Amino acid sequence: MAKYDYDLFVIGAGSGGVRGARMAAATGARVGIAEAFRYGGTCVIRGCIPKKLLVYASHFHEDFEDAAGFGWQVPEARFDWPTLIANKDREIARLEGVYRRLLDGAGVEMHDGRAVLVDPHTVEVGGRRMTAGIILIATGGQPFIPDHPGIEHAITSNEAFHLSALPRRVAVAGGGYIAVEFAGIFNGLGSEVTQVYRGPRVLRGFDEDVRATVDAEMVKKGIAFKYNTVIDHVAKRPDGALDVALTDGSALEVDCLMLAIGRRPSTKGLGLEEAGVELGENGAVKVDAYSRTSQENVYAVGDVTDRINLTPVALAEAMAFVDTVFKGQPRAMDHDCVASAVFCQPPVAVVGLTEAEARERAERVEIYRSSFRPLKHTLSGRDEKAMMKLVVDAKSRRILGAHMVGPDAAEIIQGIAIAIKMGATKEQFDATVGIHPTAAEEFVTLREPVPEPEQQAAE
């Protein structure tokens, strides 16, 4: 007779949770999973996928304008927000159905409802208690909402996907990837956008050349910035408009205020601490290299651990978890040199170290950088620049980082990431024949390093 109801019980049916459940079930384990909202998690339901669909939609106004330079006469276009949202909702519902079918096909028992840990081996869902030998926490994260007067009138990315109408004037608070992506979405669809950020430039943590390029290009597209300030309080007018007061003494009148000032792990009220699972200061589940928590039989993967909060990382962590626990092949997920993208406009993609990070770690670095007008815009007439950059260890010749701002950046950097992960050198890049005419070929034709800062100062 089995000691527990399940060999594995997963709390959270997002990317990491579903992958862990399915792959564990494939080994013959008895697996249960619980989800309090919708199957697919942040990425599928109100993150990566719907966001990318809205990014596609927001590009069309420029595409229509650019067509004239190529001989096309496009009639005046009209955008309909409800149609976009309805079509997006239909696709997200389809994907949720796919996730459910995958779990069902793998033999995973699904429990719709919020799961809470009663003890290290017991979970409760909707009043029903179940036991499991191993428990996997994969509850992801949620938007952070500050405690400012009137902040209840603001929305987050969660609500942005379900607005009944496109707001005419939008303020986006924050400077990270979600903030710049939604600033570009609203701007591209026709809203008047102001971005409010506490720092001097968006995308903190990215390479400075990336940040400068994105800042300049967003301004060209008509997005206004309020730097070095944050929201003080919000008041709603009788007509529904919002007065947003900022700490620098200025104010904005908008129809929508979107908060994108960070996310926090979703661990509140799960019973984790009561079950002996240690949490960090920000509420993240503390784990070791093998995703094991302070409680021997409890593991955690994905955004709830606040390591690298990306969907592919959650998937990789889940696979390493299954190999370790259910296949007898212990291994830690390699978090080094993980590529990422920001679907702002123009988009960003990066892999490896920034120039500043490389200068801290390497004895001497070489920087190869190019900024140019994409071929398409020689006829469209659009004033948009692409930027590409390689960070090289001058001694070993290994490429430490690659950074790009421009069309198809994510598609290009994905291939570059493989080479950098394998330890490619600058000379190996130089020996690679480029594909012409493409932007990607620039990465294998960068020949002269830019002058070092001290040289530039001397000049």
Overview of the structural elements:
This protein is an alpha/beta fold. The protein folds into three domains: 6-142 and 264-326, FAD/NAD(P)-binding domain; 151-261, FAD/NAD(P)-binding domain (3-Layer(bba) Sandwich); 346-458, FAD/NAD-linked reductase, C-terminal dimerisation domain (Enolase-like, domain 1). Helices cover 32% and strands 24% of the residues. The protein has 13 helices and 21 strands. The protein has helices spanning 15-26, 41-46, 48-67, 81-106, 157-160, 177-189, 208-220, 311-326, 355-361, 377-380, 409-421, 426-430, 453-458; strands spanning 6-11, 31-35, 109-112, 115-119, 122-125, 128-137, 141-143, 169-173, 192-197, 224-227, 231-236, 242-246, 251-254, 256-259, 263-265, 298-300, 340-342, 348-352, 365-372, 386-393, 399-405. Strand 20 and strand 21 (399-405) form a beta hairpin. Helix 1 (15-26) packs parallel to helix 4 (81-106). The longest helix is centred in the first third of the chain and has 26 residues, at 81-106. The mean pLDDT is 96.
Q: Which SSEs are present, and which pair or pack?
A:
Blueprint lengths: L5 E6 L3 H12 L4 E5 L5 H6 L1 H20 L13 H26 L2 E4 L2 E5 L2 E4 L2 E10 L3 E3 L13 H4 L8 E5 L3 H13 L2 E6 L10 H13 L3 E4 L3 E6 L5 E5 L4 E4 L1 E4 L3 E3 L32 E3 L10 H16 L13 E3 L5 E5 L2 H7 L3 E8 L4 H4 L5 E8 L5 E7 L3 H13 L4 H5 L22 H6 L1
Parallel strand pairs: 1-2, 1-6, 2-3, 6-16, 8-9, 8-14, 9-10
Antiparallel strand pairs: 4-5, 5-6, 7-15, 11-12, 12-13, 17-18, 18-21, 19-20, 20-21
Helix pairs in contact: 1-4, 1-8, 3-4, 3-6
